[in-house]
Amino acid sequence: MANRKKGGGTVEAVWDLCEPIVKDFGLELWDVRYLKEGAQWYLRVYIDRQEGVTIEDCENVSRAIDEPLDRLDPVDQSYCLEVCSPGLERELVRPEHFQRFEGWPVMVKLIRPLDSGEREFNGVLGTYENGVFDLWVNETDVISLAKKDTVFVKLDDFDDDFGGAEE
């Protein structure tokens, strides 16, 4: 899965092209991913806004970036362009994502299990600094995890007695 730091120049070039266009629509560029699924390559541009993203937002951004992307031609092979919302269980990728959603419930999957054998966690996101975040796994226990050691960190829509920010 590509993000700004992984996936080389393609993602970086698309990010730089799309970010000002997305901002012109009053939206935030959440992520850019260039990946292969089956035989098809996809260039996915994820957009967000505090109030949520509409289908019209996705259509407008898609139309606005289509021609500039064709001119930039950042991809050697054919691909399918998708502009979409990151969704309710969005993956937290950039430091800004972790800071924005501090206090929210998250799901975490690690690349390798901890010494305890645990690899998957649900908890409340604590502070994030220098690539390390705190995860409150209950009201008294917190663990510190490095983002680089995770498969993913996603928002979690669990309904539990513990944790979570009020919307």
Main attributes of the structure:
single chain, about 170 residues, alpha+beta, GMP Synthetase, Chain A, domain 3, SH3 type barrels, 2 domains, five-stranded antiparallel beta sheet, three-stranded mixed beta sheet, about 25% helix, elongated, disordered N terminus, Ribosome_maturation_RimP, RimP_N_sf, ribosome biogenesis, RimP_C_sf, cytoplasm
Itemize the secondary structure elements and their pairings.
Blueprint: H1 8-24, E1 28-37, E2 40-48, H2 55-72, E3 80-84, H3 95-100, E4 105-110, E5 120-129, E6 132-136, E7 142-146, E8 150-155
Characterize the structure shown.
This protein is α+β, with helices and mostly antiparallel strands. It has two domains: 8-84, RimP-like superfamily, N-terminal (GMP Synthetase, Chain A, domain 3); 95-155, SH3 type barrels (Roll). Helices cover 25% and strands 34% of the residues. The protein has a five-stranded antiparallel sheet. A three-stranded mixed sheet has the order 1-2-3. β2 (40-48), α2 (55-72) and β3 (80-84) form a beta-alpha-beta unit. The longest helix has 18 residues, at 55-72. Mean pLDDT is 89; it is low at 1-7 and 161-167.
